[in-house]
Amino acid sequence: MSVADRSMGLGIKALRGLAGLDVIDRVGLRSQAEQVVYTVTKQGFKGATAAGRTFSGGPTRDAAARAARPSSGRGLFDLTPTDEQQMLKEAMRDVAAGELRPAALDADTACAAPETILRQGVDLGLATLSVPEELDGAASEASAVTGVLVAEELARGDLGLAVALLAPAAVSTLLALHGDADQQSTYLPAFVGEEPPAAALAILEPRPLFDALSLETTATRTADGFVLRGVKSLVPRAADAELLVVAAALEGHGPALFLVEPGQAGGAVKVEAEPAMGARAAATGTITLDGVALPASALVAEGDPQVYRDVVRRARLGWCAVTVGCAQAVLDYVIPYVNERHAFGEPISHRQAVAFMVSDIAIEVGGMRLATYRAASRADQGEDFARETGLARRLCADKGSWIGSAGVQLLGGHGYTKEYPVERWYRDLRAAGVMEGALLV
Q: CA 375 to CA 384: how far, in whole Å?
């Protein structure tokens, strides 16, 4: 039986988006691609359109059966991707080079991702990669490493567009990892439908020296549930968001996560555009929560503080991943540039200062990647990864910024103009040190 015969409706559309890529044949992973896409696109929930969406999934299923299983691992720290991970990695790289990179400048200028790019993310099933198979998703097991590989490759095309594409996946991943049976049954089916919701993880607040464990957004208990008040900043695709996971300080408890449907909150949720220095294609905005009433079922994982810390760390790993991808884009760009650019009768790469700077970029990219992969691997092994995540984030924040600056320096006057992409990458690479939330692996 052909794949087309087995996959109907949404499956046919996703096949054209992922398994139809030429890169699948080039790396010899046609059979694995067909199997993965079939898993992702099995006939499932046909979601309501974005306008006026009401989340109402199918019957509640057993939570233990439907939660994405933790990765069993291979016993050793091994950087070799599985066949499925290699297929995804190559496919995302092809999309990044062929679709994201050409659209990046216009998207950065417009402070919004083109609809064609967002549709590409839907067709690739990005939001389904962490949704359990039992809910027609692609996840046989939870894998932070897979999430890191996907985010890294997309960011090689453009970091801002990568954030826009991966923002809904942050919410589906969180629900798959930590949502209860009712939350999963209500929301996850929409992410595998033909019109997955625009969704975002909102943690960051507009104040200096922000601490994710000390929030000013508050959640007050009521007889029926909770009331949220506060402001969240730099939320990707904020104006379009149909589902938010909001971090707030629960009265007498500490930081916790809440599911918020802006469309059902009336005027209590206000959104304003907030273009940032970098990642502008993600269409970031400020969300003001002015007495948003939520049912008791909106609280994620019963407010477990360990779950909140796990989400913060996985979000930071997501930012590390896109930073590595963007830094790799800088390296890929400057190597041919310094070899082809001539001054005083020879390529500028013959100058020792230039050659050493390019070498240092390569060294730092390798270190950032290794630290990020190590933290993600420990998360998949079920081991504590707080220290490793902290190290990866510090390395990516410091060295990512330096790599962006070095890229501009190597291009000289060209690096300071929008005709060349390094000035945009310089701005994007600053995000790793300041952003919280938005991404999740």
A: 9
In three-state secondary structure terms, 167 is: helix
Distance CA 313, CA 302 (A): 19
Among residues 367, 388, 368, which one has the least CA distance to residue 377? 388
Average pLDDT value for residue range 88-110: 96
Q: Name every residue whose Cβ is closer than 8 Å to that of residue 315 and which is 6 or more positions away in sequence.
A: 170, 201, 203, 436, 437, 438, 439, 440
* Beta carbons of 202 and 231 less than 8 angstroms apart: no
Global pTM? 0.85
Condensed to tens digits (0 to 9), the pLDDT of residues 152-180 reads 999 999 999 999 999 999 999 999 999 99
d(CA 278, CA 411): 20
What are the CA-CA distances from residue 168 to residues 121, 196, 198 (Å)?
10, 8, 6
CB atoms inside a 10 Å sphere around CB 344: 7
Secondary structure (DSSP) of 246-289: EEEEETTTEEEEEEE-GGGSGGGEEEEE---SS-GGG--EEEEE
